[in-house]
Amino acid sequence: MKKPDRYATGRTAQLDLDGKILHLPIIEGSEGERAIDIRSLRADSGFITLDSGYTNTGSCFSEITYLDGEQGILNYRGYDIKELAERCTFVEVAYLLLHSSLPTREELDHFRHLLGQYALIHEDMIHFFDHFPPNATPMSILSSMVNVLCNFYPEMGEDPLQDIDVTSARLISKIRTIASFSYKKSMGHPLVYPKADLSYCGNFLNMMFDSPVRPYVVRPEVVVTLNKLLILHADHEQNCSTSTVRIVGSAGVNLYASISAGINALWGPLHGGANEAVIKMLETIHKDKDNLKKYIAKAKDRNDPFRLSGFGHRVYKTYDPRALILKEACDETLKVLNVNDPLLDIAREIEEIALNDQYFIERNLYPNVDFYSGIIYRAIGIPTNMFTVMFALGRLPGWIAHWKEMQEDPMRRIGRPRQIYIGPRRRPFVPIDQRSP
Ligand code: SDX
Question: How many CB atoms lie within 10 A of CB 66?
């Protein structure tokens, strides 16, 4: 990582604390983002800052992804997301995130070779699937199986970055096998093993949908769509799950356990679980005779817990650039697959109403990455309860890239926020026989 001090501007912010003037350095990033460096604040003043949800707080320097929430800009290592989604494969973008530059043909071939070499999971791991309860959620299986991988590959215990390129390829390849095997097991169908002659996405589709009764035809158009979906989910700077991977990794935990923690954070309906929640919301509205007005009113009612899933974003205060690409991909994919999904019509109507409603306009609420992705997964044949697993498959290279960047950071420290205590003041101990209810 480049020396972060090169981003010090030489300017300072002045803070008058009880008459003591503090001069806090101002930092400016390569895309013009500015921060007040408060790393010495408590030592110099005894004060901490308070920022629940970390809306205003930068946790690190990073060279991986740049977001501009006002302009709706998303770049991976300086490349625009739209260009990457249209001109790359997911494997190429995974390489870019992990290695800071787009791969040469030789580098890509070698990476693909590693992905093919590590596509199988240890046969002992397959027995684990037999012992999850039948209704086990795919995200709980995924985080459990990824966590247990560290026991099959213990070499990471000592040096976290030892063989990191092999470990990264191993995880990116095996997560795809674990996901498809868990689906086959949930259906009671025979497992389909990865094939050396199929691409990363082609293999996943084949492992998911091939069967001895009806061989699955891997359609190039569906492979293109799946590559696009995974690219669009591949990274998103310090979101909840990536921050989880970083903070768990900062304690010196191996990559598998850190990624497993990230999978659990992504599971939440406010985060990666929103793609599944969107479909459930659209199905509920469809069952309710498409009574859109009722659900828009519920979403606006502060006393009603209902929120429009797939809408709003902590950072984007305009249209999520990924949602724009996915909205277009929806039409293309459903046309190619000759699918007519009434939920897409409902989604479009919701967007049309919300984007013209003051409640949403005032709060800068727009469709996010989750609003249209589920409709495409449905059209491909992926079950709703695996939508967040698909998000995890896409996000994995981003998680690994951030974990690596954190491990390589000479200034890395264990993540440990402070707090403002508002509990009882110091009081005398009361023996149990003197306590009153
Ligand atoms: C992802 O961080 C990332 O980068 C995440 C992600 C990634 O790639 O990693 O982009 C992936 O997680 C996308 C977001 C998926 N989640 C959802 O779609 C769930 C629905 N969205 C909301 O829950 C919400 O918008 C969040 C959680 C996404 C963001 O919440 P914030 O930033 O904490 O905003 P907030 O809850 O404080 O909302 C501000 C106002 C509130 O109203 P008021 O109190 O001002 O009256 O906007 C309202 C909220 O009630 N609001 C919504 C709404 N989202 C916010 N009202 C109705 N429907 C919604 N979806």
Answer: 17
